[in-house]
Automatic annotation (TrEMBL):
PROSITE patterns: DNAJ_2, DPH_MB. Belongs to the DPH4 family. Residues 78-134 form the DPH-type MB domain. Residues 3-67 form the J domain. CDD domains: DnaJ. Required for the first step of diphthamide biosynthesis, the transfer of 3-amino-3-carboxypropyl from S-adenosyl-L-methionine to a histidine residue. Diphthamide is a post-translational modification of histidine which occurs in elongation factor 2. The lineage of its organism: Eukaryota, Fungi, Fungi incertae sedis, Mucoromycota, Mucoromycotina. It comes from Mucor flavus. This is Diphthamide biosynthesis protein 4. InterPro entries: DnaJ_domain (IPR001623), DPH_MB_dom (IPR007872), DPH_MB_sf (IPR036671), J_dom_sf (IPR036869).
């Protein structure tokens, strides 16, 4: 099973603009006039479904959680466990980042932390880290 991100050939941290661009390109490629195989019907269905989920911030977020949960269950290779304190905080994006050994980045937003997400994938390679943190109750 491909993820919706894989179907649209974008990274999981891609912005909506990028996803939209990609979606439009793919849909054009699979335009009924250009279809050559019956396979394409299936692809178009997948592309539309992926776009439907990822275009909407709320459904994308719950899809991301679903993905993270699946990955947790599968216990996919977690490269390391990193303390949140060891990550670099970016005030502009309200997110924590860590440079991967491939020189890609692990980025986790405060919003994701609040949702209980603790697995972060590198935006450049297939490594993942688990972020260790205490839930902070806000007043
Ligand atoms: Zn990496």
């Amino acid at each position: 099973m491909s993820t919706h991100y894989e179907v649209l050939q974008v990274s999981e941290s891609a912005s909506l603009d990028i996803i939209k661009q990609r979606f439009q390109q793919l849909i054009l490629q699979h335009h009924p006039d250009k279809r050559t195989t019956t396979d394409d019907d299936n692809n178009v269905h997948k592309i539309l479904k992926a776009w439907e989920i990822l275009r909407n911030a709320t459904s994308r977020k719950s899809y991301d959680i679903e993905l993270a949960t699946q990955r947790n269950k599968q216990d996919m290779a977690i490269g390391a466990e990193i303390d949140l304190d060891d990550m670099e905080y970016n005030e502009q994006t309200s997110s924590f980042a860590l440079v991967c050994r491939c020189s890609g980045d692990y980025v986790i937003t405060e919003e994701e932390l609040e949702l209980g997400i603790d697995i972060v994938a590198c935006n450049n390679c297939s490594l993942r880290i688990r972020v260790l943190y205490d839930v902070i109750e806000e007043d």
